[in-house]
Design goal:
Strand content: 5-15%
Strand order of the largest sheet: 4-7-8-9
Oligomer: single chain
Largest sheet: 4 strands, parallel
Order of helices and strands: EHEHEHEEEHHEHEHHEHEEH
Helix content: 25-40%
Number of domains: 1
CATH class: Alpha Beta
CATH architecture: Alpha-Beta Barrel
CATH topology: TIM Barrel
Shape: globular
CATH superfamily: Metal-dependent hydrolases
């Protein structure tokens, strides 16, 4: 029965593997009840990821996203009796023109929700590799603390502009840093910005995704780390589950560890996007949110089939 709100495929993402249909089939095999298809939005050429630079133009990347939307709808219909497919996208927040791209996508298509993510600070990808992270850090002033501050300020700008229903990998900034295992508790100014952002997310009933990709990449805790989860709970915040899979072999990866993390954190309830759920955002008339108690979630047979 569990759910994932974040996935990519090699068909529509240059740093992923396998077709979108193969990813959906893997989700069915794993026993997911709901699975979200959330490919990246198109970007201007100056913001291409390295693997896209020799493969795409701005026009072809935009056409690829349109092809994703069509294929996602097809798969929703084909597999409707086996799984509830949710159609969304993962946003970026890179430069002022990014807002216009997102607004255009939302105006053109009907989605169930979207993920609001930050992958860049000072227009430089901060999770692609260590070299790019260091470039961003130098632009920020040369320290992790300064870069973290700028990351969370940029995230706050994104939150104000978009109010994303689900906020993706909230503390992604720590992945390539010298504080990757949440050892930034002494950064008082950073924590002030984290609290500000979490408070705003809670104010409009946004959800944080508990994202296992950090575990897959060697972090001790998923995104967000335990301290951030506890702060969000104190603010009345809610969570959804995500595997952030980039191919069939990553579907449900580390979900058993994620359940243990949820239980250890004291998270009593997990939310999920549901086409039959309570509507709370006029931008998404096709779906809302439902929830399940963590104790009920943990009792499902799903957990017998995954690691």
């Amino acid at each position: 029965m569990p759910y994932s709100h974040h996935s990519h495929s090699g068909q529509f993402c240059g740093h992923a593997k396998d077709t979108l249909e193969e990813v959906v089939q893997a989700a069915i095999t794993k026993g997911f009840e709901r699975f979200a298809l959330t490919e990246h939005i198109p970007r201007p050429i100056e913001d291409f990821y390295p693997e896209e630079q020799n493969e795409h133009t701005e026009e072809s990347l935009a056409k690829l996203f349109e092809a994703f939307y069509i294929e996602a709808q097809r798969l929703r219909n084909v597999y409707a009796d086996k799984i509830q497919i949710l159609i969304g996208f993962e946003s970026e927040w890179i430069r002022p023109s990014t807002l216009q791209i997102i607004q255009g996508i939302l105006a053109k298509h009907t989605f169930d929700f979207f993920i609001g993510s930050i992958h860049h600070t000072h227009t430089i990808p901060i999770d692609f590799n260590r070299e790019m992270y260091e470039q961003a850090r130098e632009k920020a002033g040369g320290t992790d603390a300064r870069l973290f501050e700028d990351y969370f300020d940029s995230q706050f700008d994104m939150l104000l502009a978009l109010k994303p229903p689900v906020v993706g990998h909230f503390d992604l900034i720590r992945l390539a840093s010298d504080h990757r295992d949440a050892s930034f508790k002494d950064m008082t100014s950073v924590w002030d910005k984290i609290h500000r952002n979490l408070e705003f997310i809670a104010s409009y009933s946004g959800r944080l995704e508990l994202n296992t990709s950090g575990l897959r990449k060697g972090l001790a805790e998923p995104y967000p780390c335990l301290a951030i989860c506890q702060m969000f709970m104190r603010l009345g915040g809610a969570f959804v589950l995500s595997d952030d899979s980039h191919g069939t072999d990553q579907v449900a990866t580390n979900y058993a560890r994620l359940l243990a993390f949820v239980q250890n954190a004291g998270i009593k309830e997990i939310h999920y996007v549901d086409r039959a759920g309570l509507r709370c955002d006029d931008r998404f008339p096709s779906a809302g949110f439902s929830s399940i108690q963590t104790s009920s979630l943990a009792a499902l047979p799903f957990w017998n089939n995954i690691q």
